[in-house]
Amino acid sequence: MTTVVTYGTFDLFHIGHVRLLKRLRDLGDRLVVGLSSDEFNSVKGKNVIIPYEDRREILLSCRYVDDVFQENSWEQKRDDLQRENASIFAMGDDWIGKFDDLQDVVKVVYLPRTQDVSTTELKTVISEIQNEKIRQIQSLASHLSRLIEKL
Ligand code: C2G
After folding, report:
1. Residue 107 has what pLDDT?
2. N or C: which end of the chain has fewer CB within 10 A?
3. Where does 3-114 sit in CATH, by number?
4. pTM above threshold 0.85
5. Where do the domains of the chain lie?
6. Whose C-alpha lies nearest to ligand 1, atom 14?
């Protein structure tokens, strides 16, 4: 049984996450995800949109994920890997080199990220759509107030 372990926030679950999880699952027989708690995301400097329990349920509904545990600190990985009897620790390559110290207990793998999609980009697109709607409402409001002045 080859267990693969990875970590992440997985906020606003998107195709980049799906493609990574599929590739990770293909590395072994079992994929377990260390999912960052809402509190740990504050430590990571991330403002999550989707709360932990929902992010966990979404991950567990993904066919490539076999189990999820909570990530609460940077320091817990070594204990997690031993508890899960992991053979492989794998992350997207934006983390390349950052976890090589774990090579004494597992095989450490970094896989290419999916280009042109990220939670940050999704947040930007959503706020741009919201801003456009606000501009349209403001324009309509000023048009209406001009009409009312003419009455
Ligand atoms: N990812 C990807 N392609 C994207 C976006 C993300 O392959 N377009 C990968 C990242 O490289 C990461 C995983 O998906 O391996 C989860 O990404 P995040 O939710 O952003 O996780 P991160 O904040 O990097 O947390 O202790 C490790 C941290 O918890 C990792």
Report:
1. 98
2. C
3. 3.40.50.620
4. yes
5. 3-114, 118-151
6. 17
Residues with active-site annotation? 44, 46
Q: Which residue has the tokens 């390559």?
A: 93
Structure tokens at 116: 């042109």
Question: pLDDT digit string (tens) for 57-80?
Answer: 999 999 999 999 999 999 999 999
Gap from CA of 6 to ligand 1 centroid (Å)? 9
| Pocket mutation for ligand 1, best pick of 11, 17, 111 (most atoms within 8 Å of C-beta) | 17
- Closest atom, ligand 1, to C-alpha of 94: 11
Inter-residue long-range contacts of 74-83, CB under 8 Å, 24+ positions, other chains counted: 74/43, 76/34, 77/7, 77/34, 77/102, 78/102, 78/105, 80/5, 80/34, 81/5, 81/105, 81/106
